[in-house]
Amino acid sequence: MKVVLLQDVARIGRRHDIKDVPDGLAHNLLIPRKQALPATPDNIAKAKQITSRRIARKEEAHEVFRKTAAALDGAHLTLRAPANQTGSLFKGIHAEDIAKLVSKEVGQLDAAYVALPAPIRQAGEYTIPLEANGYSGSVTITIAPA
């Protein structure tokens, strides 16, 4: 029996996938637990529409990233953070902080695209890599004591 999955189901498939499963599994487990719907033409059309919208949103987000990465080429940003006399920051700078600064100064940037291996804990100048689905860029940020 063909079903449209309403959520991720282990060893069967992901949400909005159209899968062929045994009749007993569909009737006794997936449909009563509201994990799947029968694959009627209407349900299949809805699932395909949702999947295509999700793909379009991903492409749009990657396009925004490419534009932001191009705008950041050669840009130098400054972030002020509380620190002691030796330059050690009281709070580490995370990917979310960098994404917020870039979004405020240059253009929209999601924190998931900031490839920061560990939080920055010392004042200074850093080149932060940005990566998204095969595209890459970088931003130079100066962490200044506040």
Automatic annotation (TrEMBL):
Which GO molecular function annotations are given, in alphabetical order?
Answer: rRNA binding; structural constituent of ribosome
Cellular component aspect of the GO annotation: ribonucleoprotein complex; ribosome
Pfam families under this entry?
Ribosomal_L9_C, Ribosomal_L9_N
Alphabetized PANTHER family for the sequence: 50S RIBOSOMAL PROTEIN L9
What NCBIfam families has UniProt attached to this entry?
L9 (TIGR00158)
Q: Which family does it belong to?
A: Belongs to the bacterial ribosomal protein bL9 family.
> What is the protein name stated in its UniProt record?
Large ribosomal subunit protein bL9
Task: List the source organism.
Answer: Candidatus Kaiserbacteria bacterium RIFCSPHIGHO2_02_FULL_50_50
